[in-house]
Every structure is written in C-alpha cells, then in structure tokens.
Write a structure and sequence with these properties.
It is built from two helices and ten strands. By secondary structure, the protein is α+β, with helices and mostly antiparallel strands. It has a single domain, classed as Immunoglobulin-like (Sandwich).
Length: about 150
C-alpha cells in the first residue's frame, strides 16, 4: 500500500513539474507604444518607445520596426521608405526606444509599424509577440500606430 502511494505521488509530482514549464504558445505582449495611437501635436523631436511584457531579442525587434511618414492602413511589404534612426534598449531589454536621425516634419502623420514575429530574448525558438491589441490598428501581420506632429 505504501509503495502504491509513493509511486502515485511521484507520478503526480513529475507530471506537475513537467507541465509547469510548458506553455502551448509562449509569447510576449506590447504593454505600450509612445506616442500613443492617435496622438496629435507630438514634438518633432519625439522618440518612439515600445514597451514589451518580456525581455526581447533586440535584432529581431529592430528588424520588424519602422517609422514611416504617412497615414498607413496596411503594413508595407518592406520597410524601404522607413525613416532612418538608432535604437536604444533598457537594461532589461523590454523597452525599445527609436531616435530618428533627423527632426520630423511639421503637421505630418507618421505610422509606427511593428511586424509580427518579434522574438523574446534568448529563446532561440521563434517565440513571437502575440498580443498587440489596443495600441493601434491590427493588420494581417502586425500593428500600425499613428501620430501627428505639431505645426
């Protein structure tokens, strides 16, 4: 009887430990985008910040980000017309900040484009950002958040 209890308890513990670390769809979410979607009167020297719920892979995120002049409705197939700039990350690699190489134009709508497929840091397994709702317009393959600069 004791052997049966010990075996049963061991089986339950092993199964429990095995399933604790297993997720069907490990993913990260966007916590915030700044400037926020629909903002008006944004400074022409603004920096773009994207905050994630997890530590992210810098190269993966930077390659799937673009700031594009115009009021985009659909995600561009490429980022050839993206505004050039540099990226900085916080120590925890969960906040990506983009600095444009030049001052933005007066009274212009800009679109922040974030393609799906941004990977979490250190996973090497292609875990992707899954939830981007509430921060802009969802597209088939990502999100577009828009803002307009000050006059």
């Amino acid at each position: 009887m004791n052997t049966f209890k010990i075996t049963s308890l061991s089986t339950v513990l092993i199964l429990g430990m095995w399933t604790v670390g297993c997720e069907d769809n490990p993913s990260s979410e966007i916590v915030s985008i700044s400037p926020s979607n629909g903002s008006r009167g944004v400074a022409k020297t603004t920096e773009i910040k994207v905050e994630f719920s997890e530590s992210m892979n810098e190269m993966s995120c930077e390659s799937k980000f673009a700031l594009i002049m115009g009021n985009l409705e659909d995600m561009p197939s490429d980022f050839d017309h993206a505004i050039s700039g540099t990226f900085n990350w916080d120590e925890g690699q969960s906040i990506m900040t983009f600095h444009s190489d030049s001052t933005l134009m007066d009274s212009v709508m800009y679109s922040i484009c974030l393609k799906e497929g941004m990977e979490m840091h250190g996973n090497g397994m292609g875990m992707m950002m899954s939830s981007m709702s509430g921060h802009g317009s969802s597209t088939v393959n990502g999100i577009i958040s828009k803002f307009e600069t000050v006059k």
